[in-house]
Amino acid sequence: MESTPRRAGAVPADRTERSTLTLHVNGAPRTLTLDHRTTVLDALREHLGLTGAKKGCDHGQCGACTVLIDGRRANSCLLLAVAHDGASITTVEGLADGDRPHPVQEAFLARDALQCGYCTPGQICSAIGAIAEVAAGHPSHVTRPGARPDTVRRSFGPEEIRERMSGNLCRCAAYVNIVAAIGDAAAGRAAERPEAGGPVRPRGGRQ
Fold first, then answer.
1. C-beta of residue 29 within 8 angstroms of C-beta of residue 36
2. Mean pLDDT over all residues of the chain?
3. Which of 54, 84, 124, 177 is the most buried (most CB within 10 A)?
4. Residues 161, 136: contact at Cβ < 8 Å?
5. Contact present, 75 and 60 (Cβ < 8 Å)
């Protein structure tokens, strides 16, 4: 069988389909050689073993894959890794300060703001991004038109939280406690469980 002739000037496929890049993940540089079609999510999960960010819809609709890229929340399933060479990426695995969880993680535990836990890493990363957006005075769709940045910062109540978190879906419908946990974290409050006992632990194993 005759092979298909290659176009004049065409570059062999094995030289065009992979590139070497460096992602700064949770504070550490990670150099990878990846297929150009590899998403940031697959780079994290399949190549770096960081399985906190979940592959839910794989279409940017559920928010389970949310991570922080250069300090801003993003759906990692929609982003090509090669387009983020040099970017700083923070996943749920990199939020804790040593053995101390991030304040948003602590608030989620205290408020029992999870059930199966599948969406929780994305919810937490998105919440951190949303709190940062409010701190910077960025308005949302429900912010009063013409509101000043200081007004935005003071108005981060349940309505604002629900709007800003609307891209993160919870199949277990734990929204009431998620909103409360984000409100606690944003206000700098250490939420306390209403009943006696130790901290709530996430259910389930590796997903």
1. no
2. 87
3. 124
4. no
5. yes
